[in-house]
Request: fold
Amino acid sequence: MIEYTPKELEGNVNVSSISPVKDFFVLLAGLFGLILFIYILLGILVDIVAGYIPAKFENSLGNLYKASIVHQKQSLEIQQEELKIQKILQKFEPHFARKDLKFTVQVIDEKTVNAFAYPGGHIVVYSQLFNQSKSENEIAFVLAHELGHYAGHDHLRAAGRGLVFVLASVVLFGSDSQISQFISELLSVTHMKFSQKQELKADYYALDLLQKAYGNVDGAVEFMSQMSDADNNDQFTYFFATHPYPKTRLQLLKNKIQDKGYSQSNPSQK
Amino acid sequence: MLLTNIDCVPGKEIKQHFGLVSGSTVRAKHFVGDFFAGLKNVVGGELKGYTELLEEARGEAVNRMADQAAQFGANAIINIRFSTSSVAAGAAELYAYGTAVLVG
Amino acid sequence: MDYGDLIQIFLPIVLVIVAYFTGTKVEAEHYKSIIEREKRFLNLPALTMEFKSLFKDAESIQQIERAELVDGSVVISVDYFKHFVASLKNFFGGALNSYESLLDRARREAILRMKEKAPNSDMIINLKLETSSIGKEGGSSGKGVLTVEVLAYGTAISLKK
Reply:
């Protein structure tokens, strides 16, 4: 028989002494750094490419999208509204920088205030906008805002970034691991911030366009104050939204108007 | 430290034993390596990156086991066994255990 | 975007923080119990040595009063905090230190449970340990928190007094 010598071990070689908390923060910082790096790199790439995409390609992209939008039978009222919008667009045309786009307008009978633009110069406006707005200027502001997106090639950028991120995250992290879910959530937050910046840029562009075409920027403040009055959401919920908090947006518009010295016919307006 | 996976150290006599010693480590390859391994999976063949990783990890596990034996004052580990288990996607645990003995 | 989406983003963060404190506490208590029980069983060694090297001649085999198979097993899961750190580390590569204590605890617990089944024997020989990662969502497939099962088994030998 071999003799047994009982001894106790001191310490534990099988468990590292590195604090998991330190590990956690180091790794998290590394991950954020990596994401930021990829985001900035790809963002710059997409931005560069978006500026060079010819209008022809943009048009065919738009036509693809157009097919997915419901076409309604148009009532007389809606046709009149579309004509109204065409007229406003004609006023903007001499001041708009991109001559390569042909604009088409579609009014959809919907009960929410909304307007959006998609590649190829297609602008869609919901009819509720006409019921709510008191003047042509307000509609003009909304249109000018959408034109601002075209001027910045924003849809192409947004679509490009979206595509690149989906690709990158699937290639790097696989389609369904938990970490890739976490990363895509982080990315979407960063993306929202980018989108909010674009919205503000489009707002400022709209102010400039209004001033040039109408000689005043009345519609902007009127429209935004209506929007912010109608908005019941908390400021906090806008942290992750595509659009900035309406009250902040209104305030920024007012500041810009003062800075640039844009004229207003009714400055006492809220 | 003498390591064997048989019951004795040939040519030497076991004087006393100290019980079980073990070492373990969990390792993972970085995402670039995982990506290339994923590509290699399509065509099959040896995943060199993972072979290296597990080799290195097994070495570390043995070192840890030897550390424990040294603490006991042993100079050999006999009847060593290895086990590898996959604990997460792309990560593996290497475990080595044996009996620490004093030979002379 | 509403509060539902906010909850989706913040829930993992809250879980990680809560899991850190509960997980640390659970682990400290488990280690305390393991160390205390290991001291009690210090005179019952578990060996990987096989029968023939320990009992070479007929005389020593005659000393054996009893030999029986004993086993001990445990299923134990890592906390969400350590899981999160490990998933991050898995991405960058290297040693997944935060899983080490889980596996260490699991093995020591399984061996202790095995010893507790034969408290009056003198040694356990031919010890073997099996580790498998199990879990609701496939264990090793990447989703879900790591859960391991460790099985320890060997032959308990009691000698004539």
User: Anything to note?
Assistant: Residues 6 and 29 of chain C are 35 Å apart (CA to CA). The first helix of chain C runs from residue 3 to 40. The interface with chain A takes residues 1-3, 5-6, 8-9, 12, 20, 38-39, 42-43, 45, 53-55, 60, 63, 81-82, 84-85, 87-92, 95, 97-98, 100-101, 103-104, 123, 142-143 of chain C (CB under 8 Å). Chain C has a mean pLDDT of 87.
